[in-house]
Design a protein that fits this description.
mainly alpha, elongated, 434 Repressor (Amino-terminal Domain), 2 domains
Length: about 120
């Protein structure tokens, strides 16, 4: 039984980690665009490859702590501003994100269904 719980926990942690990478990347891209900077310009200011900025913005990689600090400085924002994702509070957006994630991951779909059943029948 412990193995099963650990496996489910690992799936949840992996999923959450990926969602954080995607949300952070989207937020960096959103702010970069409002500042009218290209990926190339941001990469040059930070001192990394343009492909690294692309990978960060597309949610493939987390920026290092050092590069995250540089991104915050170049974009002239506070760390809090980088992590504010108010548009994700929209219920339709959240539903769409969950549906898309579950369409691509059978294990996640089964896990979310088990979670749904557990919550549904709580008093």
């Amino acid at each position: 039984m412990k193995f099963y719980i650990i496996t489910n926990l690992e799936i949840i942690v992996h999923y959450i980690s990926n969602m954080i990478k995607q949300l952070l990347g989207k937020r960096i891209k959103e702010i970069r665009r409002t500042k009218k900077l290209t990926q190339e310009q941001l990469a040059e200011f930070i001192g990394i490859e343009t492909s690294s900025i692309s990978n960060i913005e597309n949610g493939r990689y987390f920026p290092t702590a050092e590069n995250l600090d540089k991104i915050i400085q170049v974009l002239q924002i506070t760390p809090t501003e980088l992590f504010v994702v108010e548009h994700n509070n929209d219920n339709d957006y959240l539903i769409e994100e969950l549906i898309n994630a579950m369409k691509n991951d059978t294990k996640l779909t089964k896990l979310m269904y088990k979670y749904y059943l557990a919550v549904k029948y709580q008093d």
